[in-house]
Write a structure and sequence with these properties.
The complex is a heterodimer. By secondary structure, chain A is mainly alpha-helical. Chain A has helices spanning 2-9, 63-81, 85-90, 94-118, 129-144, 151-165, 176-187, 193-215; strands spanning 29-34, 45-46. Chain B contains 6 helices and 7 strands.
Chain lengths: 217, 181
Amino acid sequence: MVDDMLEIVLDPIFPPKNPVRQDGRQNAFELIYGEGGTTLCPKPVCVRSPFSKSPYPIKELDPSTRLSNYVTCSESRMLQVGEDCNARSRNASVEEKLQSNTMKNSIAALENFTKNIQSSGYFKSSLDSEFLHAHISRVNSYMLTWKQLTPKEIAVVCGALTAIANSPASIILSDQRNILQMSQVLSDRAMKAEIKITAVITSKIYICLISYCRLRP
Amino acid sequence: MQSILNFLGSKSLNSQWVVQKYVEKPLLYHKRKFDIRVWVLVTNKNEVFFYKHGYMRTSSSGYDTKDQNNYVHLTNNCLQKHGNNYGVFEEGNTLSFQTLEEYLRQEYPKYEIDLEKHIISRFKDFIIDSYLAWKKNLNPYKRKNVFELFGYDFLIDEDLRVWLIEVTSYKRSVFLNYRHD
């Protein structure tokens, strides 16, 4: 280690009379950052990963990935099942019971999320768009499958959407993905009134946001 | 919180302290806690070098959050060497990166862990971030032909996230100022 270190710090100043590397081994010090213009680093170097990289190196262990997986599952389930949700819940298989447990946990997570977003410490700088999208997708998928939810769970879902609309994160509602999902909620004639009202209120907010973005020079 | 306030209350007003979150669920090596030491060389030319041969420093006792014994929670060699079990499991309580990779692949085969890609790349991120944060203070007198060696201590948690625990400067022992006349 000391030989390798001296090769970097000393040899450029006092070139060695005898070649140090006779075994062909490479210097074990790897340049990870440099601003360029030096002997060892003629061009700028920075191996820093993008800041968008998840702190969880293994995707399966990342809670946000687990969340979006659940959203994807519920969405696909929603498309397959259609309006036959009540009949299906009567003949619930073991798999469905497991899904039901996941849904309960998911509702609890949504409740926590609403509390966090309503807290005064939630600023624009702390926004994670993918994380919020995952939550909004989940809210929308719950709204579309409202027949499976209890009145309390419906209130949690509506509360989550209202909380997002009233938070600094409201800009996220103007995303196209959300608009498409929200249009599905609004076009469903059988939709529960409470959900429709929430959807209309939040839609007004993001329509204002879109108009503002378009009018801005 | 109260014990932190009590501690700070007993210290002088001008002193500075860092409060760190304790990582309760670290990744364990055969049920024992470990941390990772890597060496970083910084030159006055704003070059940062990462020494590839880091190593694990293991604890001599099984990990248990209820056990307040320092030998369970602190893996520093300067502490562990005084323990009764020092060197019982591993020589000098240290192991190579290769051993860690083999262990992780054996314990978590489904994740196909690549130490360089999944763990070491995060070490490098933390090193660059900390260097950029502290860069202005590293060579305040703009001396030429100087360098500094740092010891970075990292911890890996059970979700394989990397945590930077501490950075130690070895300025006093290896800092050399070569004057090129």
